User: Fold these one by one.
Assistant:
Number 1:
Amino acid sequence: MEKLISDLRDFAKERNWLKYHSPKNLAMALGVETAELTEIFQWTETEESRKADAATRKHIAEEVGDVMIYLTMLADKFDLDPLSCAKNKMKLNAIKYPVNE
Ligand SMILES: [Mg+2]
């Protein structure tokens, strides 16, 4: 995770893009990329959405990558590690939604 964060910082810095990377812009970009991922499944039947040919799988992988990039960049603006955030949220979810026995 640290390597990805570092690489994303370098990538933006080398292109002089940091001036565009406000939290607002990154949150908007994250929303756009999430919509692009969602669009892949738009109008598909439920069972159809479970299957993906090689081209669709490649497209899904690219959009997952875009979502991860913007999520990581947004979290980095607040000095947050997305993996730690997810782990912490899972702990809260386990308390909120206990297993019914
Ligand atoms: Mg995209």
Note: Helices lie at 2-14, 23-41, 46-49, 54-77, 82-96.
Number 2:
Amino acid sequence: MKLSQKEKKTIKEKILATLKELEVQIIQLEQDTQPISPENSLGRVSRMDAINNKGVSEAALRGRKDKLNKLKIALTKVGDEKFGICDRCGNTIALPRLMYMPESDFCVHCAR
Ligand SMILES: [Zn+2]
């Protein structure tokens, strides 16, 4: 069973909305991952906190950018006949899964 045009449209809108959110988050995270100047007025402990937080932000930033790229690819594929069809077993990928992870090529069973 293939996805209906309406379902594809819903997924496409979801992708576009998520892309917007990600872009905002990426801008914020890029500010949070600016180099920490060594001569700043933070104490030693605060400085270590700042460095730890920066590490967390950098990991988050990488994750967001990765997701952004995957979603951009998904957006180009959403109109394809094969979109939403599992690459391995050929079954339709469940709509909630596509809504959550539009970039997924496999159904929930094959992805395990
Ligand atoms: Zn499958």
Note: Residues 5-79 form one domain.
